[in-house]
Amino acid sequence: MDILVCIKRIPDISGQVTLDASDTDIDDSSLGHTTSAHEECAVELAIQTAAATDGTVTVLTVGPAEAVEQLRAAVAVGANDGILIEAEDPGAFGAEDIAQIIGDVIRDRAEQGQSFDLVLLGNDAADTGDFQVGIRLAYDLEYPVLTGIQTLTSGGDSAGSGGSGTIEARGIGPTGTEVFALELPAVIAVQEGGVDPRYPSITGRMKAKKARIAEYEAPEPGTGNPRIGLELPPEKTSEVTILGEGPDAAGALVDVLEEIGVIRS
Amino acid sequence: MTLVFVETDETGQVVLTSAEAVTFARTNAEALTALAAPLPAEQPSGHSATQGEVAQRPEGCSDESLRVEAAVIGALTEAATNQLAALGVDRIHHLEHPDLEAYSAAAWAQALVDIAPETGTVLASGTPRGMELMAHVAVRTGARMAANVVAADEGGLLRQVLGGTAFERLVLDGDLQVLTIAGHACTPEETTATSPEVLDYELDIAADDLRTRVVRTEVQAVDGNDTSGLTQARAVVGAGRGVGSENGFGEVLELVDHLGGALGVSRVVTGLGWRPHAEQVGQTGSRISPDVYIACGISGAIQHMAGIEGAKTLIAINTDEESTMVQRADYAIIGDLHEVVGAVNEEIRSRRG
Ligand SMILES: Cc1cc2nc3c(=O)[nH]c(=O)nc-3n(C[C@H](O)[C@H](O)[C@H](O)COP(=O)(O)OP(=O)(O)OC[C@H]3O[C@@H](n4cnc5c(N)ncnc54)[C@H](O)[C@@H]3O)c2cc1C
Ligand SMILES: Nc1ncnc2c1ncn2[C@@H]1O[C@H](COP(=O)(O)O)[C@@H](O)[C@H]1O
């Protein structure tokens, strides 16, 4: 099964953020970059599924030239090749645009002889969290789509030739694990929790440096980004009451819990 | 008109997050109407609706465009109808069909599209179902969608981005806007009770839309993947890397028991395989709003904090006084969590006598 995984370069945020001069984006000049946890799991699922079906994994991103780092990081853990759709200012695009751009490139690759049985994405990007690129892409491709999927089992008979075979997908629903059975080709948005992303090996890192990255230019934004600006929540001033140090403070804590009224009698 | 997709639980009650979404729709009706094109809503057409009695509108809601209507898929219990009436819903669209019994996002979304207004707002709470359905509805109606909205005024919508670190202000162009409401963005508020009319429909479901239906649900197959205990608990004891190992949960689990609460863990804990992912709290886990959250050996990374913003009282137990969790807490004890939690359990036992 040949699988495409869409990943997005995002700032690696570990604490409070500051805004850039335009107030429409965060200042990421001093931040590292990464991809979302859900997407790392999508890459891992793709690698496992491709290995089980003798298929390939291609990673794709719409982003600045530097996003090639994220593509290479995915190759280092086992993806075969990458597609960079270069957009100087990715923030100018809306979810509709991103889905459309990805859809167009998927069709173009198919014309070039590279077609995908399965397209994986993250459930939601950790920065914008739009929760919709995967679904919009699926409608554009006219493929069925699932979201919140944690594990995949390929249903065999996948010839890796653009859409044969089936796949079983599982995700957590309100009353238990929900199982889906899909005909390929399909789009699936992956949620963290089903698999542990692997670390790159030394040979993986070597391979990543030489990986084939197909390059495209993103068109001008169509629908555009509906964002007017970003706002930061008011800073919380800490008024922590230190109840004490070590086990001696237990009594004071139990007093607090009793006051809140959460101790079972 | 604002149409709210309302989720019900196995007992037929409206779930908390949906009650929040209905309240959001009602308390922000004017802003939502102003943001969508300010034309009166169209009546649903092309469906044979069996109309009940005429709805009484709540006070101050004379304008058709300010109406809040609910859509319930599957069985509609009397309890849910009463809850929705108390929340001030003007009309309930009841969408029931054998083909909608098993969840299929495409089919459920189409049922909502069939009754969606042409102008106005369709919204749901920001649960996995809500997110997924609203995205389908947005594509099918040609609308734009904003996820995790927390506020609305004439200047636009405000929604959580970056895992709750920042808010995005935006305006969705088009006659119809599709939103999901972030969990705990508002508290459910009852109002002058309405007596909503209930509309039943003959639905036409396309075979294509059933390709993505749930073929089976495994209730017990995966060890404890039910997050409802965690999201509904009044007291949650959080455990992070500081617990030390898979076998280090004895004290915290005893405390959970004393509080009749739930265990929540950091991603480090699930990542190391010490506890199942269903117990993870944070940006990629559950978002909780207990009366008290006791974070034991959790540093307070932004992605973890995103899940506990709704906690009314935050208590930290940590060896590091400088950690974000201690700095952000209402109360803290500095020390080894095993010793401290052990002593707390002992104190609770001895006070009980
Ligand atoms: C995209 C993304 C999504 C994420 N989503 C989530 C999420 O949903 N939930 C989540 O939790 N994290 C999430 N994370 C991870 C997050 O960034 C942190 O890595 C994680 O929360 C840290 O877990 P921790 O606090 O248990 O561990 P650490 O940061 O290692 O902290 C351990 C703490 O324990 C204290 N400690 C150590 N020993 C003891 C002891 N004996 N007694 C008391 N205290 C002790 C230490 O002082 C320290 O404060 C996400 C990260 C990314 C990039
Ligand atoms: N610029 C992008 N490039 C590649 N994939 C993307 C991009 N933006 C979003 N995606 C994919 O779509 C998923 C959902 O994103 P979103 O709808 O923005 O929350 C992400 O987890 C990615 O897998």
From TrEMBL, chain A:
Residues of the Electron transfer flavoprotein alpha/beta-subunit N-terminal domain: 23-225
Cofactor(s), names only, from the UniProt record: FAD
Keyword Transport among record annotations: yes
GO molecular function terms listed in the Swiss-Prot or TrEMBL record: electron transfer activity
Record carries keyword Membrane: no
InterPro entries: ETF_a/b_N, ETF_b, Rossmann-like_a/b/a_fold
Swiss-Prot/TrEMBL keywords: Electron transport, Transport
Entry similarity comment: Belongs to the ETF beta-subunit/FixA family.
Function: The electron transfer flavoprotein serves as a specific electron acceptor for other dehydrogenases. It transfers the electrons to the main respiratory chain via ETF-ubiquinone oxidoreductase (ETF dehydrogenase).
Subunit structure: Heterodimer of an alpha and a beta subunit.
Name of the protein: Electron transfer flavoprotein beta subunit
TrEMBL record, chain B:
Ligand binding (FAD): 241, 266-267, 280-284, 297-304, 318
Transmembrane segments: none
MF (Gene Ontology): electron transfer activity; flavin adenine dinucleotide binding
UniProt lineage: Bacteria, Bacillati, Actinomycetota, Actinomycetes, Micrococcales
Protein name: Electron transfer flavoprotein alpha subunit apoprotein
SMART domains: ETF
Primary role: The electron transfer flavoprotein serves as a specific electron acceptor for other dehydrogenases. It transfers the electrons to the main respiratory chain via ETF-ubiquinone oxidoreductase (ETF dehydrogenase).
Residue ranges of domain Electron transfer flavoprotein alpha/beta-subunit N-terminal in the record: 2-214
GO biological process terms on file: fatty acid beta-oxidation using acyl-CoA dehydrogenase
Quaternary assembly: Heterodimer of an alpha and a beta subunit.
The keyword Flavoprotein belongs to this UniProt entry's keyword annotation: yes
Protein's UniProt keywords contain Flavoprotein: yes
Region (Disordered): 41-61
Protein origin, superkingdom: Bacteria
One Pfam family cited in the UniProt record for this chain: ETF_alpha
Entry's cofactor comment: Binds 1 FAD per dimer.
Family as reported in the entry's similarity comment: Belongs to the ETF alpha-subunit/FixB family.
Protein keywords: FAD, Flavoprotein
Necessary cofactors: FAD
InterPro entries recorded: DHS-like_NAD/FAD-binding_dom (IPR029035), ETF_a/b_N (IPR014730), ETF_a/FixB (IPR001308), ETF_asu_C (IPR014731), Rossmann-like_a/b/a_fold (IPR014729)
